[in-house]
Specification:
Elements: E1 8-11, H1 26-40, E2 50-57, E3 60-68, H2 69-96, H3 110-119, E4 129-134, H4 135-138, H5 142-148, E5 156-162, E6 167-172, E7 189-193, E8 197-200, E9 210-212, E10 216-219, E11 228-231, E12 236-238, E13 255-266
Antiparallel strand pairs: 1-3, 2-3, 4-13, 5-6, 5-13, 6-7, 7-8, 9-10, 10-11, 11-12, 12-13
């Protein structure tokens, strides 16, 4: 009798079942399915090579489908391949978000680059990062840093690595320049990998985003110190908590020695 077996669908009305219900109550409905199939005469005893599946979809009333074990294995194999394809597509989407760099960064690894790119303003997404200043290429000079950004009209990313191997810095809505007054917007933020990624956005308490002169570059302020301060030789630095960002010190030491600096511009 079983050689002529055909799949049988048994309708079950479950008005209270929410979207996405599937297989979560298999044990409960197994006995009900047997009762229903026995009453309908479609099946007297559950054989070893038969399985019962329970389905609920958005546009369909939940139902039980009785199929052979062979068919169930085929379906499970198909579902696994679909899930693998979905995971691959998700990975590809993450790859697409990875920034395109004009040069290889000496300070940021792939994880750090991806974290920063994901937390930068929407207007920067999808545009290449261009290296405009690097101590390993241009030497340690704040004047050179300013000069390399002259004429730019795009946000910049400052990355610092200190002698304790800590990586931190700031995203500035405006390129760095010498100015008598503070400049920048609320897009400006601080970050650190100490050791995990931390981001400090504008608190709204004041607008002391960035200021610069020939002796130093300052980011954040209004309290007892700057959130980030660099001297003219880009050798000595400091980082304190400040009202502008309500940040913790970015380095493990409030006063630190700079090992390397990179500045990236993100422009279309």
């Amino acid at each position: 009798m079983w050689s002529n077996f055909h799949p049988v669908k048994v309708k079950i009305t479950l008005w209270y079942i929410s979207r996405g219900w599937c297989l979560s109550r298999a044990d409960m409905w197994h006995s009900r399915a047997q009762n229903l199939t026995e009453k309908s005469g479609a099946l007297k005893n559950m054989k070893e090579h038969i399985r019962v599946f329970y389905f609920a979809k958005d546009c369909k009333e939940p139902y039980v489908e009785i199929i052979t074990v062979k068919e169930s294995k085929r379906r499970l194999s198909f579902c696994s391949s679909v899930e693998s394809e979905a995971e691959e597509n998700e990975y590809e989407e993450r790859d697409e978000d990875f920034p395109v760099l004009s040069d290889q960064s000496q300070l940021l690894n792939e994880y750090q680059l991806q974290k920063l790119a994901a937390h930068m303003p929407a207007r920067t997404q999808g545009y290449p990062w261009n290296l405009v200043y690097s101590t390993s290429i241009h030497g340690s000079s704040l004047k050179t840093l300013y000069r390399n950004m002259a004429g730019l009209d795009s946000p910049v990313l400052l990355v610092i690595k200190d002698m304790h191997k800590q990586v931190f810095g700031a995203f500035s809505s405006d390129p760095f320049r010498v100015s008598k007054y503070c400049y920048g917007t609320g897009e400006t933020f601080l970050f650190s990998f100490n050791p995990d990624f931390q981001q400090y956005r504008w608190s709204g308490e004041n607008s002391y985003f960035v200021s610069g002169n020939w002796e130093s570059l300052q980011i954040g302020g209004g309290g007892g110190g700057f959130a980030l301060w660099l001297d003219a030789d880009l050798y000595h630095g400091a980082s304190f908590s400040c009202p502008t960002f309500h940040n913790a010190p970015l380095s493990t030491h409030e006063d630190f020695i700079v090992q390397d600096v990179e500045v990236w511009t993100v422009q279309n």
